[in-house]
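Board notes (copied after class):
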Amino acid sequence: LAATGLGDAFRLARSSTQGSRFVDFRGYLPSYNEPSAFVSAPIRVGEQTIGVAVFQVPTDRFGATVVASAARGESEELLLVGPDMLPRSDSRLAPDRHSVANACRNPENARLHLPEVEATLRSNPRGTLTTHDYREVEVLLAHRELDVFGARWSILGKIDTAEALRGATAIRAISADAQQRFLTWSLVLLILAGLAIVPCAFW
């Protein structure tokens, strides 16, 4: 296990005196090589670290929450992406290609090749734009940077322009919901992590 995300999370927390540490999604062999992320924290008594608590964040529970949160419209979708433009949640519209599992197994195939969106993410931590998504369909897109225990992700909320124009309130609804979820994702991540606790490791 030393070479897995669990091992990395353990070492990061062991060398820390306070706060949580995060290891991004990658294949985890004990979970049949399915992607998992890890959150870890030192367990301290006074000035002494006596152990490390590590929480596993599997993609099935994490991704299902993201997908379900944007399941109202035909084309409405929320996506979490890293600075490498690889998905950190599964696409609702293209789950076979743009998924966390495929990002680990075939990064170039899973990567969101959206130059206009990528440029906007680099220059602005939050904003909205009209652009074309990975389906070459024009969409209205809202984005915001997200700090996940030091990892810099972005959350994208989008809807097809054609669908949005069928009801002017649709884009306002997705933007408002996305803004609210931006502020709560770190808490959601901790709650989800708590569902898959890896026993404390002591040495």
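Comment from the instructor: The mean pLDDT is 80. Residues 117 and 123 are 10 Å apart (CA to CA).
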